Amino acid sequence: MSLHGGSSGAPPAVGNAISYGGNGVSADTSRAVAIVSSQRLRLTPNKDHQPDTYDDLQSYFSPSIFSSLEGHMPPSMLGVARDDKVKFMQEILLKYLPPKIVKGHGEYKQKIISNYQPLHRELYSMNPTSFFVPSFLKAINDNTEQSFRSIMSEPHPGIFTFEMFHPHFCELLISEVENFEKWVNETKFQIMRPNTMNSYGAVLDDFGLETMLEKLMENFIRPISKVFFTEVGGATLDSHHGFVVEYGKDRDADLGFHVDDSEVTLNVCLGKQFSGGELFFRGMRCDKHVNTGTHSEEIFDYCHVPGRAVLHRGRHRHGARATISGHRINLLLWCRSSVYREMKKYQKDFSTWCGECNREKKEKQRASIAAMKLELFRREGESTA
Question: Where does the source fall among the domains of life (predicted)?
């Protein structure tokens, strides 16, 4: 597969961008995870079931996650005590927390937060009216598919673009990141970079922006993903990895062909002045087909615009071409669903979104129809003989 098109030739290996920052969950918590019951979650939730209320629950996870997940629980567990439900669900949720929960990370993060002095404290709590453009905020408040589509473009299947952040917010966030990097250089503090593919940039969760980004995912990205990415857990996004990446002179030049460690990825260009750096997309793939060739209808290139968001499945293969001049900085939010990752273990057919699974399914259907026609002709021939 050529990165510029066609399906001929051997495809390049697709990288897997893995995060190694942290969300502040201790290694002790990770080790305490019990083996999840052998009972399987339901693929589709029980819409007639009224879930318990979890607002009073003291947990790392949002109460809304437990309410959402409860509908997917095995029927035999819907009537058990709330504490037993919590234990069952928490075991699943903890098992699928991102791999960035590493020994000592909690201490690492606390050391940063205790010593780094934020430049723009207004960024550290969610303030929708100052963060977002009015059109985006209205669409979210209306919370309908029609309202979302009214502000979105879908220039290629599964890729949505829309105006999202105020220019002033972009400027403040860039300034905050630059201030953090200045502190890192002055103190010679060794920080963890966003993932295994980017050598420049910073994990926003690590220096105090975790709560704000959690609200961004829960209240603004999850409602959209519930509509457009249901088949990959869009309605049950429950953890995130938030970071910025930087491209240009003395920084990363480009980004290799890869898939994200996410169900849904938000990518917003913050600025500054730059040329090049286009995203190139080459089709959605499950684990089995991640290195298969690209077909012409899957080829799509996107040019970044400051303040404009791109929303896509994490399994949509993509990369970034070289930033030719200037300095480009982007905000990335990898959104994950523990529910989807648990249920995915029992699935073999991902034809609702994997391009290759879909082609294989259609080919089997065509072969089956051809075989049926052949058998029908054979029987007709025997009856007239």
Answer: Eukaryota
